[in-house]
Design goal:
Elements: H1 5-10, H2 23-36
């Protein structure tokens, strides 16, 4: 999954779903992209 930087910064994203449906994979990809851009995670 890859998001444009502008849309990620402008939008609040909520990843919801059942366990074992890929939520952790999506969140890991988003966090990896944020870290590579030197953004803060909290």
């Amino acid at each position: 999954m890859k998001m444009r930087s502008q849309s990620m910064v402008r939008s609040n994203m909520q990843v919801i779903g059942l366990t074992q449906y890929g939520n952790g994979v999506i969140m890991s990809a988003i966090m990896d992209q944020a870290i590579r851009r030197k953004n803060c995670l909290f």
